[in-house]
Design a protein that fits this description.
Blueprint (H helix, E strand, L loop, with lengths): L12 H20 L3 E2 L5 E3 H5 L6 H6 L2 E3 L5 E4 L4 H10 L8 E10 L11 E10 L4 H17 L6 E7 L3 H16 L7 H9 L10 H7 L11 H16 L5 E2 L11 E9 L7 E7 L3 H4 L7 E7 H6 L10 E6 L2 H16 L3 E4 L5 H10 L4 E5 L1 H6 L1 E6 L4 E6 L3 H10 L1
Parallel strand pairs: 1-5, 7-8, 12-13, 12-14
Antiparallel strand pairs: 2-4, 3-4, 5-6, 6-11, 7-9, 9-10, 10-11, 14-15, 15-16
Length: 413
C-alpha cells in the first residue's frame, strides 16, 4: 500500500483551509505596510543556498541537493530569504529600493520530523530591503505582531529580542566566546566541537544538554556591543515601547551566520512543547553582498504555517450549500441544468444523484447542506421543484420560476 514519504503529509480540506486562512490573513496585513507578493521557484542552483556557508546546519546536513539531467547541482529551497535575494539581484531590482516582499510556500529540509515541522513544511515571510535605520527592524516586528493579532494568537506568544551588534561587536564577542569555550572544549558535544572551529556562535543555539550547561555561564553578547550598536538597539526598544509592543531581551538569542547583525527576534509559545518558536527573524545587512550583489541592508522574518495552525482556532463561516436530488434519468437532465444556473449565481451546489433517497439525504446532512431541491417525474410534469428545509424537516413544492426567490429568502435567513 502506497504511503506518503516520511516527513511529508497531505493537506486535507480542513487543514488546507487553515493554511489558506493564515496565508490570506498574513498577506492582507502585510499589504497594509506596503509588502507586495513575490514567489520564487521551489528549487535553485545549489550555490544560492551554499553561499550561506558550509557551517550552517541548513547547508551542512539538511538540504535536499541533487544533480539534474543537465549536470547542474540543484537544491530544494530550505528557506525563503536567500531565494528572494537571488531574485532581487537577477531581476535587476537593486535600483528600486526600498523594496518590501511577502512570500509563502513549501520549504524542504532533511531533518528529523518534529511537531509542526515536517521535511516539507510551509512558511510565510516578509523581507525589507534598503532600510538601514532601526525603523526597519521595528516595522518588521510590528508587521509580525499585527499578523499574529489578526490570527488571534498574539496572546499565546511572547516576543524575545537581542542585538547582534555590528561587525566590530561580532568580532570582539567571537574572540571572547572562543576563549571561554576552549576552556570547556572536552565537555562540548561533537557537533559543538566542530562549530568551535568553524562557527562558534552557533554553539549558543545548541540543544545538547551538556552544551546548555556550559552556555549558561558564557559571556553575554550585549556586553561587547560598540557604542553605535548599543544606540541602534536602544532606538529599536524605544520605538517598540512607543508602539506598546511588549518584548523580553534574550541575551542568548543569536543568528550564527556572519551576515546577520543588529536586531534578532523570535516569537515563542508554550503550547508546542520544545518546538516553541513560531516566528523568527533578524537583520541581515551582509547577505546581498555575499551573493555578489551590491551592499544593501535587509531585514525580515519567517513563520511556520504548520506551527501557527497548531495554536490557532478558526471558526470558518461555511457558505450555504444547496443539495440537488434528482429522481430518475429525466430528472438528472433538468437537475444538471438547474445546478449550473445556481452556480452561475454563485450558489454552492452538490449534486446527489446516486444511491437511495435515504442515503442521499444522509449525504446532504454530512456536507451540512441547508436545503435540498428534489426533482422527480411529478416536478418535471408540473415544471416545479420541491424544496426541503434540512434543518426544520419541512418541505414545499413551488413553481420553477419562484424557486430563486424562495432559495434567496432561505439562504439569507
Amino acid at each position: 500500500m502506497f504511503q506518503s514519504v516520511r516527513g511529508t503529509h497531505d493537506l486535507l480540506p480542513e487543514e488546507f483551509r487553515r493554511h489558506q486562512h493564515i496565508i490570506e490573513t498574513a498577506q492582507n496585513v502585510s499589504a497594509l505596510y506596503g509588502y507586495e507578493p513575490i514567489s520564487t521557484p521551489i528549487f535553485e542552483f545549489t550555490s544560492v543556498f551554499h553561499r550561506l556557508g558550509e557551517t550552517s546546519d541548513v547547508v551542512s546536513k539538511e538540504t535536499y541537493t541533487f544533480e539534474d539531467r543537465g549536470g547542474e547541482s540543484i537544491t530544494l529551497r530550505p528557506e525563503g530569504t536567500a531565494a528572494i535575494v537571488r531574485a532581487l539581484i537577477s531581476n535587476g531590482l537593486t535600483q528600486q529600493l526600498p523594496l518590501r516582499f511577502f512570500y509563502h510556500g513549501p520549504m524542504f529540509r532533511y531533518d528529523r520530523p518534529q511537531k509542526g515541522r515536517q521535511r516539507q513544511f510551509h512558511q510565510i515571510g516578509i523581507e525589507l530591503f534598503g532600510v538601514s535605520e532601526p525603523a526597519g527592524d521595528v516595522e518588521s516586528i510590528a508587521t509580525a505582531v499585527q499578523i499574529l493579532r489578526a490570527l488571534n494568537i498574539l496572546d499565546k506568544t511572547k516576543l524575545y529580542i537581542n542585538s547582534l551588534g555590528d561587525t566590530e561587536s561580532r568580532s570582539q564577542y567571537r574572540k571572547v566566546l572562543v576563549e571561554y569555550l576552549k576552556d570547556h572544549e572536552k565537555d562540548l558535544s561533537v557537533e559543538s566541537k566542530t562549530r568551535l572551529v568553524k562557527n562558534p556562535l552557533r554553539i549558543l543555539d545548541s540543544k545538547d544538554h551538556n552544551d546548555k550547561k556550559i552556555i549558561a555561564h558564557a559571556p553575554v553578547y550585549t556586553q561587547y556591543l560598540t557604542s553605535y550598536a548599543e544606540d541602534f538597539f536602544a532606538q529599536v526598544q524605544q520605538n517598540l515601547d512607543s508602539l506598546e509592543i511588549a518584548y523580553n531581551i534574550d541575551s542568548r538569542l543569536v543568528r550564527g551566520l556572519d551576515y546577520y547583525c543588529h536586531t534578532a527576534f523570535v516569537f515563542r509559545t508554550d503550547e508546542l512543547g520544545s518546538q516553541g518558536e513560531v516566528l523568527g527573524g533578524g537583520r541581515y545587512d551582509g547577505l546581498v553582498k555575499s551573493m555578489n550583489g551590491p551592499e544593501i541592508p535587509g531585514i525580515g522574518w519567517a513563520a511556520g504555517i504548520e506551527r501557527l495552525a497548531l495554536i490557532s482556532q478558526f471558526d470558518f463561516e461555511q457558505k450555504p450549500i444547496v443539495a440537488i436530488i434528482p429522481l430518475g434519468a429525466a430528472a438528472e437532465v433538468k437537475a444538471f441544468k438547474l445546478a449550473q444556473e445556481l452556480r452561475n449565481s454563485m450558489v454552492s451546489v452538490d449534486m446527489l444523484y446516486t444511491g437511495s433517497v435515504q442515503k442521499r439525504f444522509k449525504r446532504a446532512d454530512k456536507i451540512k447542506a441547508s436545503i435540498a431541491i428534489i426533482i422527480g417525474d411529478e416536478e418535471i410534469k408540473n415544471n416545479s421543484v420541491t424544496l426541503r428545509d434540512l434543518k426544520k424537516g419541512e418541505q414545499k413544492t413551488v413553481p420553477h420560476e419562484q424557486m430563486f426567490t424562495e432559495l434567496k429568502q432561505h439562504l439569507l435567513s
